[in-house]
Amino acid sequence: MFKIRSFSRQHTCCLMDETFIQRKRTAAVLGSMVVPKYCDPKTVYTPKDIQTDMLSEHGLNLSYMQAWRAKEKALQFLRGNPCDSYNKLPKYFYILEKNYPCSVVKLKKAADDCFLYAFVALCTSINGWQHCRPVVVVDGTFLKSAYKGIMLTASTMDAAGTIFPLAYAVVDSENDASWKWFFEQFKEAYGERPSMCVVSDRHESILKATSVVYPGLAHYSCMWHIWTNIRSKFKKGHLQLHELYFATARSYTMDEFNERMLKIEEVDLCVKSYLYDIGYHRWSRVHATVNRTFTMTSNIAESLNAVTKDARELPIFDLFEYMRTLLERWTKEKLSKAKGTFTYLGHKYNKELEDNSTLSQKLRVRASTDHIHTVLDGVKRYIVCLENKKCSCGQFQLDELPCAHALAALRHRNETYENYCSPYYTRKSLLLTYEMPINPLPDEGKWDVPQHILDEVVKPPAGDKRQPGRPHKERYKTFDEIKSKKYKVLCGNCGGEGHNKRTCKNAPKKK
Questions:
Q1: How far apart are CA 290 and CA 281, in angstroms?
Q2: Which of 434, 292, 287, 417 lies closest to 352 in space, CA to CA?
Q3: Structure pTM?
Q4: 156-190, pLDDT tens digit by residue?
Q5: What single string gives the DSSP state of each residue in 22-86?
Q6: DSSP secondary structure letter of residue 419
Q7: Are 296 and 225 in contact, with CB atoms under 8 Å apart?
């Protein structure tokens, strides 16, 4: 036992200074120091990087768990609690409608105020849609934040052949109800246009939803997704079938299609039966009831998913704001490129036309009438009707762009190609697509929101909280996808393929 007889409040030892005055290396302190590293969701800054930087800059030797907790604190400071993010949606959607009139912004909750669906179609996309070909590519991709969910997107191609996002939504999962709700909001925003069609990855819920919301609308399948199904279902002749299938899907005439289908039948009769059961009109260009031109796959939707890969880790409020800023940036950049375009057509279609023009140089033309010409390509003969914008090769009418034979006929008449191209490919359409800018939103602290909007409660999805542990960032790939990848093993000793340094029997490579 000790008895204190006198006590001096003045402490001069350095140990007490370090204990009571200096900040400790707690997760909150370290997290506040690394917050700027996580402002951009694409930045990869791992706990290992935190360990390295803290040791080199501040002389702090952190364990991995200390660095991981610092990262979690930094993300919490920057993005807030994922649970609270859902409660911000009502005021955010109110500001969107206020700043972007004529936009379609919808939020749907369950009976217990839990989040169910959210949909956004900005006025800029709605205005630009009128100047794009009415081919809508839809797809869904999973979220990687604290709560589960699926982000649905709809997009099309502009006159330059680049992605033009139309709408995006967050739903609970890809099911009949969620896709039906998505297409109902899409129809409210964009309506229905003549010759409109939808391209998707053959998800059953998409097929059902479009048949209900858009009865009679043409629905096509991505030819790449059909090929992956063929590759997984049928085990023989993959090398032969790969080239044959894609050539068949891209055929411009019925004769070409039938000839290639016979070759597919020779390789595997079951593959032909499978393609027939799907319906030729769903994947074949020449059988399509509505002209889909160059959109034979859902690649633009997959590309949009790749762009948002890192953003899908954000809380839902930050995800919607990321999508808005992405559209704001793309609109500005594409408008600048459109103003810097001095050709009659957009970049992609102008390149196609130049390639056709090169091929047309060696063709011979014989005029039958003012509008009908015979074009000789070696021993082959093609009939071009400029009045109806058709060629016996099929490319002129299906691509809605002069083929090599049509360009040869036009050169024979000393006529330019401008009147024979689709208006959806022109520079004028490109400028009109992006004529309406997306203005920035004010800071969140300056939002003027009515009290009844602030009082609205949105709870996180019930039962959709992710389980503890390292989250899965990539989708689960099928065995066939993994098996199809060809990995090259290179030797570090001789540089040869098929073996490694330990099993190498060759002489070392010269340096």
A1: 9
A2: 417
A3: 0.82
A4: 999 999 999 999 999 988 899 999 999 999 999 99
A5: SPP--HHHHHHHHGGGGSSTT----HHHHHHHHHHHH-----HHHHHHHHHHHHHHHH--HHHHH
A6: G
A7: no
Summarised one tens digit per residue, pLDDT across range 380-419 is 899 999 999 999 998 999 999 999 999 999 999 899 998 8
Phi/psi zone of residue 229: left (φ > 0), alpha (ψ -120 to 50 degrees), beta? alpha
**Among 30, 22, 23, 24, which residue's Cα sits nearest to residue 69?**
30
Residues near 436 by Cβ (< 8 Å), separated by ≥ 6? Answer: 123, 124, 127, 128
Q: At what angle do helices 27-34 and 64-79 cross, to 10 degrees?
A: 60
For 89-124, how does the pLDDT look when each residue is reduced to its tens digit (9 = 90+)?
Answer: 999 999 999 999 999 999 998 888 889 999 999 999
The answer to whether the CB of 178 falls within 8 A of the CB of 152 is yes
CB 420 within 8 A of CB 385: no
For residues 411 and 357, give the distance between their C-alpha atoms in angstroms, rounded to a whole number.
Answer: 10
Structure tokens at 345: 């057509």
Distance separating alpha carbons of residues 360 and 345, to the nearest angstrom: 19
Q: What interhelical angle do 223-233 and 238-249 show, nearest 10?
A: 150
Q: Which two tokens stand for residue 255?
A: 């004769």
pLDDT confidence tier of residue 38, bands split at 50, 70 and 90: confident
Please name every residue paired with 404 in a beta bridge, in sequence order, or none if there are none. Answer: none
- How many degrees, rounded to 5, is the angle at CA 338 between CA 220 and CA 435? 80
What SS3 string covers 185-218?
A: HHHHHHCCCCCCEEEECCCHHHHHHHHHHCCCCE
Nearest to 120 by CA among 422, 324, 273: 324
Q: What is the mean pLDDT of residues 243-262?
A: 92
**Which stretches does DSSP call E strand in 205-322?**
218-221
Cα–Cα distance measured from residue 44 to residue 38, given in angstroms and rounded to the nearest whole number: 8
Predicted pLDDT of residue 479: 45
- CB count, 10 Å around CB of 317? 20
